[in-house]
Amino acid sequence: MQARIRLLQPDEHHQCELILRGLPEWFGIEDALVKYVRDIQSMQTWGIESRGEIAGFLTLNRHNTHSAEIHVMAVGRTYHGRGLGRQLIEHVE
Description:
By secondary structure, this protein is of the alpha+beta class. It is built from four helices and four strands. The protein has helices at 13-21, 24-27, 30-42, 84-92; strands at residues 4-7, 44-50, 53-64, 67-75.
């Protein structure tokens, strides 16, 4: 699948929130979801675009110049099974 990965701007967090809200079986706790959205605005977040829309994202929590961890990651339900999550992980590695 043709997809483009780019660093998202803080004002694009609403698109990430829509993806999270579309996956209630994984992100169904409202307090946690709100915290993730807040964190997405302040942490480095990469988005993957397909067909002109943000299909998924990965937010990275950098601890220092040598270590980081995935803070939150999600791919929209309609894009599951197409390798977009794997592409995000490979990109940030």
